[in-house]
Amino acid sequence: MSEKNRAVPQSVGIIMDGNGRWAKRRLMPRSFGHDAGMKRIVKLVECARAAGIRYLTLFALSTENLARPREELEGLFGLFRKYFEEYAPKLVAEDVAIGVIGDLSALPADVSGKMLEVCARSKRDAAFRLVFAVNYGSRAEIVRAANLAVKAGGEVSEEGFSRLMYTCGVPDPDFIIRTGGELRLSNFLLWQSAYSELYFTKTLFPDFDERQFKRALKEYSRRNRRFGKV
Question: Which of 65, 103, 172, 207 is catalytic?
Answer without folding.
Answer: 65
